[in-house]
Design brief:
Length: about 190
């Protein structure tokens, strides 16, 4: 008997089993790599949508400030009406009577009724696909007088302060960013 020939005959099935185990391990690694790639792609898409929403809200915020700046005389604040061409009394837009502040609770339909539209496309990295046009809303905060003297004709001379609230959406309607700024204007 030849000892080499006997050992070869004993190992015939071992190579097949080891090969199948290696193939199973490589398959599991491949599936894991596919899952990781899919997750990373979703995360990148979500980040992009968030950036688009932020840029949309910021552009609407600047648009609201420019809108206030266009007036030669002070627009009188109102407590009711629709958003177009309205400056609101603080905390009164749309008669929103929820437990939280209106800007925290207001949904897309509310913003469509009471918010002023600022454009409908925004270009971020060559993409112009946002789900809804950005909107802004302006509230008057009050007057900071230039003088402390009362009873004079100069009582209304000073700076009026406005609060601009903007809402922007990303690539899908689930990504929403809301921003606020305070803007001073002298008439």
């Amino acid at each position: 008997m030849n000892p080499k020939l006997d050992s070869i005959r004993k190992q015939r099935g071992a190579v097949l089993i080891v090969s199948l185990i290696m193939l199973l391990v490589l398959t599991l690694l491949g599936f894991s790599a596919i899952q990781n790639t899919t997750l990373e792609e979703r995360m990148a898409g979500s980040l992009r949508s968030g950036q688009v929403a932020f840029e949309a809200a910021e552009s609407a915020l600047r648009g609201g400030e420019a809108w206030i700046d266009q007036f030669n005389t002070r627009p009188l604040p109102k407590t009711s009406g629709t958003a177009q061409e309205v400056v609101w009394v603080k905390d009164s837009p749309g008669n929103y009577n929820e437990t939280n502040y209106w800007w925290q609770e207001a949904d897309a339909d509310w913003w469509s009724t009471y918010g002023q539209t600022y454009g409908n496309t925004l270009s971020i990295g060559g993409a112009t696909d946002i789900s809804q046009g950005p909107r802004f809303l302006v509230e008057e905060l009050g007057l900071k007088k230039d003088t402390l003297v009362l009873g004079q004709s100069q009582d209304e001379i000073g700076q009026y302060y406005y609060q601009v609230t903007a809402r922007g959406t990303g690539v899908n309607t689930n990504t929403v960013v809301k921003l606020r700024s305070t803007y001073a204007r002298r008439y």
